[in-house]
Design goal:
The protein has a domain at about 10-160. The strands form two sheets. A two-stranded antiparallel sheet has the order 1-2. Strands 3-4 form a two-stranded antiparallel ribbon. The longest helix has 27 residues, at about 5-30. It is about 20% helix and about 0% strand. The radius of gyration is 58 Å and the shape is flat. The protein has helices spanning about 5-30, 40-55, 55-75, 80-105, 110-130, 140-150, 155-160, 215-220, 275, 330-335, 370-375, 415, 450-455, 490-495, 565-570, and strands at about 225-230, 240, 290, 295-300. The protein is mainly α and about 750 residues long.
Length: about 750
């Protein structure tokens, strides 16, 4: 038989193991600790165990994303520098685990999880940006990794950038290898990632297993430098090589076992950029021959021959350049391709003095006369073919032109043809203009009577087609004078000046040639006014002479004697909302504003009058009379339905008014409360009042007399509030409903406990 103490130790070990497993499971599910705390490492082991025990790949990927998001929350909520420093590597490991798990998913399911991971990277970028970076620290490296992953398109590319495994030592001794088995122990050189599915003979040639190399360079050697025969160097005749200078470091610095494609390289401290980036230099091309000022000039777009770091300071973003131009003189070395065709062939610094803003130019033009060297493209067409300085004397303000026209008797059109308006006088410019003041035009019109020979295009539309001198004179063109003597046909010249709807007759019937604005016509014998004058809309249709006279047209006289049908003429003048009946029923022709209507026997007021808004909708004569409209009288005899006319005020009882009021004295309210016990149906209890029925305590004879039968009621707190500083507990324990005075409670006496009898002895 085993000793009893052995069983106790075994059971203690079992319980301890179960407790550790339960505690580990609890930490993996609840995750109460954060990086840097004492039990975080145990919790991290539990999280990894939970991840490894998850069988479904999709659930494992989701769990990895949640754990990474949890580490990001730990970093964002870190309150101290120590907590921040502990949370950064924890977040880095969680992101690495997430990328590995997501990359193991089938390709069809990676798109959804890749979008979730990019959103996680965006949140990570925001949190990292709020932290104070340190030079070459874990925060800087994590930030670079996040930016690099955000620029990639697939999870495979992200997984390819994960750190390569550490180098494994060579197998220096022979090992026993079973024949034709698949579970060979490769613990010295694990066959993972890209090596997982390689044939054995790829590494073990001729059946040799001992001393098999494990370094990348032993198997993956660079191909021989290839020659590119299609590309020529710019400054030498030597051929250009594809691998002139490969990086001499370890393969793991750039490549991974998952993919031989390059992942982000830590460029800190590396200055030999051309070892890897020779192919990134702009490809040299054959020199291009262009013409500059009719001279053949070779333009060779070569790259700057100096060190890369002089321009490319940011290794993460190669396009960003920063170069100190203070001591640079040969700008053409880098900026020759940027030079426009027909550019000034001199040194760049002669014009571009500011290296920060290349568009700011300044050139000293003093003493320069060959303007065409730079400004050939600025010359408009057609332009004077002479020297620029002959007109443009001020080199600072090119638009100021000064030309000495003294002695220039040649044709002005040689230079100013483009400035000549069209159509223009075809004669010599000097016939009208002078060189001192071109805007002053002076032409001697003496003996020039045929104005149309020069001014044909200046005639207004519908102008008189006769000779201009018939009306105008050369000294004062605006003064027009025409002798109308013997000119009876006004329409021959003025046909277009007649207004619309004008009298179609002869102009001389009304107008005078000496004073056209004075219109005079004798209307004697004219009775048909509409022959010349149009009638306004909605006007009386009878002849005008029935009301108007030719001496004073606005003096209208019409005899309404015996005319009672006003609407036959004035139908359009009835105001809106007016009584539709005959006007003469109320108005008279002597004094229209004096309205008289006999209401005798008229009781249908609504036929003419509209009731005001919110008024009782019944007939007016029910309450009003025509003698005194403001006096309203309603016989309420037999009327008990008050709500039919009168609305109930707010908060009033909603029942019929006649139940309480009477028409004789409205303020006298009388209600018979006999057999009425439902008081709350009409009366609202005061605030804080007992919510029960009023009749339980009050009566209608004397409302102030309150009586309540407390028989059987012991829950006093249901209605009564305990006074301040009063002891807690139910009132009925001390008080009674018969007398509220407190009665003394008898003191209980101690009762001895019964003694137990021992069991009988067997």
């Amino acid at each position: 038989m085993k000793p009893r103490w052995t069983n106790k130790w075994f059971l203690s070990f079992i319980f301890l193991t179960i407790g550790l497993l339960a505690g580990t499971l609890y930490l993996g599910l609840t995750t109460p600790f954060h990086p840097g705390q004492l039990l975080y490492r145990w919790q991290h082991v539990a999280e990894l165990a939970q991840l490894n025990l998850t069988a479904v790949p999709e659930e494992r990927a989701t769990l990895a994303l949640n754990q990474a998001d949890r580490r990001l929350a730990d970093l964002a909520q870190a309150q101290t520098s120590a907590a921040t420093q502990a949370a950064i590597p924890a977040l880095n490991d969680a992101l690495t685990t997430a990328v590995t798990q997501l990359n193991n998913l089938p390709a069809a399911q990676q798109a959804y999880y890749a979008a979730q991971f990019q959103a996680l990277l965006r949140r990570t970028e925001i949190v990292l940006a709020a932290l104070e970076p340190e030079e070459d620290g874990p925060l800087t490296k994590l930030t670079s990794r996040v930016k690099a992953w955000q620029a990639l398109d697939s999870l495979a590319e992200m997984a390819a950038q994960l750190p390569a495994p550490t180098e494994t030592p060579r197998l220096n001794t022979a090992a026993f290898v079973p024949f034709l088995v698949s579970n060979v122990d490769h613990s010295a050189f694990p066959l993972t990632a890209g090596h997982a599915n390689l044939p054995c003979e790829s590494c073990h040639e001729d059946g040799q297993y001992a001393h098999t190399p494990t370094a990348c360079a032993d198997c993956h050697t660079l191909p021989p430098a290839q020659t590119a025969t299609t590309l020529l160097a710019t400054e030498s005749s030597s051929l250009w090589h594809v691998y002139p200078n490969h990086f001499a470091g370890e393969c793991e610095s750039c490549h991974t076992l998952y993919s031989w494609q390059l992942y982000q390289f830590d460029h800190i401290g590396v200055t030999e950029c051309t070892s890897c980036h020779t192919n990134d230099l702009p490809q040299p091309v054959l020199p291009e021959i262009i013409l500059v000022n009719n001279m053949a000039t070779a333009v060779s777009p070569t790259h700057y021959p100096g060190d890369c770091q002089l321009c490319h300071t940011d290794t993460a973003v190669w396009e960003l350049t920063a170069y100190e131009h203070d001591s640079t003189a040969a700008c053409e070395t880098c900026h020759n391709p940027d030079t426009p065709v027909f550019h000034y062939p001199g040194l760049c610094q002669e014009c571009h003095a500011d290296t920060e803003n290349w568009n700011l130019t300044a050139y000293a033009h003093e003493g320069v006369t060959e303007c065409e060297i730079c400004h050939m493209q600025d010359t408009p067409e057609p332009h004077l073919p002479g020297t620029c300085t002959a007109c443009h004397a001020d080199v600072e303000e090119w638009t100021e032109i000064e030309v000495n026209h003294a002695g220039l008797t040649a044709n002005c059109l040689t230079c100013h043809r483009a400035e000549t308006p069209q159509p223009h006088y075809e004669g010599t410019c000097r016939s009208c203009h002078n060189t001192l003041n071109w805007a002053t035009v002076n032409f001697d019109h003496t003996f020039y009577q045929n104005c149309q020979s020069c001014h044909t295009e200046e005639l207004p539309i519908d102008h008189y087609f006769g000779q201009c001198s018939s009306c105008h004179q050369e000294t004062t063109w605006q003064d027009v004078e025409f002798n109308h003597t013997g000119q009876p046909d006004c329409n021959g010249c003025h046909s277009q000046e007649k207004p619309d709807n004008h009298y179609p007759g002869y102009c001389g019937s009304c107008h005078l040639t000496t004073a056209w604005e004075q219109v005079w016509i004798t209307h004697e014998g004219f009775t048909n006014c509409t022959q010349c004058h149009s009638t306004p809309s909605n006007h009386f249709t009878t002849p005008c002479a029935n009301c108007h006279n030719t001496d004073d047209w606005h003096a209208v006289t019409f005899s309404h004697a015996g005319l009672n049908n006003c609407q036959s003429c004035h139908v359009a003048q009835t105001p809106n909302g007016h009584m539709p009946g005959q006007c003469s029923t109320c108005h008279n022709t002597s004094s229209w504003n004096e309205v008289t209507f006999s209401h005798t026997g008229t009781t249908d007021c609504l036929a003419c009058h509209t009731a005001p808004g919110g008024h009782w909708p019944g007939q007016c004569s029910t309450c009003h009379n025509t003698t005194s409209w403001q006096t309203s009288t309603v016989d309420h005899t037999g009327l008990t339905d008050c709500a039919a006319c009168h609305s109930v005020t707010g908060g009033h009882w909603l029942g019929q008014c006649s139940d309480c009021h009477n028409t004789t004295n409205w303020q006298e309210v009388a209600v018979d409360h006999t057999d009425l016990y439902d008081c709350v149906a009409c009366h609202a209890p005061p605030g804080g009042h007992w919510p029960g029925q009023c009749s339980s305590c009050h009566n209608t004879n004397n409302w102030a007399e309150v009586t309540f039968d407390h028989t059987g009621y012991t829950d006093c707190k249901a209605c009564h509030i305990r006074p301040d500083d009063h002891g807690r507990g139910q009132c009925s324990r001390c008080h009674t409903t018969i007398s509220w005075e407190i009665e003394p409670t008898p003191t209980p006496t101690a009762v001895p406990l019964p003694t137990s009898t021992p069991p009988p002895t067997p």
